[in-house]
Amino acid sequence: MKRTKTDLKNKWVVITGASSGFGRAAAVAFGSAGAQLMLGARRLDRLRETARLATEAGAASVCPHYLDVSSTPSVEEFGNALIEKTQEVQVLVNNAGGALGVDTVLEGKDEDWETMFQTNVLGLLRVSRKVIPLMFKTEGALVINVGSIAGRVAYEGGSAYCGAKAAELQISKALRLELCGSPVRVTSLDPGMAETDFPLVRCKGDEKKAKEVYRGLEPLRAEDIAETMLWLAERPAHVCVDELVIKPTAQAAPHKVFRQ
Q1: Would you call 161 a catalytic residue per the annotation?
Q2: What is the pLDDT of residues 103-129, one digit of tens each?
Q3: Which of 7, 24, 44, 196 has the greatest number of C-beta atoms within 10 Å?
Q4: Does 165 participate in catalysis according to the annotation?
């Protein structure tokens, strides 16, 4: 029996957090497959640059739109703009999120905690609630929730972020159960150390601390994660990769890293 991978040409792909990092690389990767893209992020200038790159890569169409996943009205507006363009979505990449600070629980700040849970957890729920109903007509539709190995193994200074990404993993597992019997597949994609602006944001602009994260090793790149997303989305409709952990070769665990 011939195995046919899922064709993404002219299919709609929704990507949150598309202004940089994994989101930008994903837009380029899915664009190269000829998909139509709905891209959301808060930084519109950078989002428009992502749209340009995706168009150059071969996207059938690209629609950049402001999106703040921590705001229900913003998610509703984004979703309604999507509905005006299509009633069928092939892929949803819940990528918006991130970490703030490396404080211990006793030193933690409410604003950092709230931002991490609003974006990584509640934002994922809000976007999923709005977009997934557009995926039920599409064979081989896929929700990719971008998690982290931090959701699987806790470490000092990462309590809130580890908790938020653990919530992402459990939400993905619950969605998988809830959507069983529908055409919609669910994957939790959990990267380890990857070179994006993630550490700079986490270190609140401290470039010296951010660079120290990657000292003496070759981390994953955003393109590695984007290529993995594309591979997941192109699997035949009967194949669902529930969970995928991907780390650089030099990182065996969050606390076990080989540095030259």
Answers
A1: yes
A2: 999 999 999 999 999 999 999 999 999
A3: 24
A4: yes
Label residue 49 exposed, middle or buried (CB < 10 Å: 0-12, 13-18, 19+).
middle
Rg (CA), the chain: 18
Output the six-digit token pair for 214.
């990657």
Work out the end-to-end distance of the chain between its first and last CA atoms, rounded to an integer number of angstroms: 48
Average pLDDT over residues 187-204: 81
> Which of 165, 173, 204, 211 is flagged as catalytic?
165
From 16-20, 97-101, 166-170, the region with the lowest mean pLDDT: 97-101
Q: Residue 197: what pLDDT? A: 75
Tokens 């600070």 correspond to: 101
Whole-prediction pTM = 0.94
| Pairs from 3-6 (Cβ < 8 Å, separation ≥ 24) | 3/236, 4/236, 5/234, 5/235, 5/236, 6/90, 6/140, 6/142, 6/233, 6/234, 6/235, 6/236, 6/237
Tokens representing 130 are 């709005």
Per-residue tokens: 84? 């005006």
Q: Which amino acid is at 13?
A: V
Token pair listed for 141: 């539709």
For the chain, what is the mean pLDDT? 94
| Coil, helix or strand at residue 12 | strand
Assigned token pair, 23:
């989101």
Euclidean distance between CA atoms 134 and 130, whole angstroms: 8
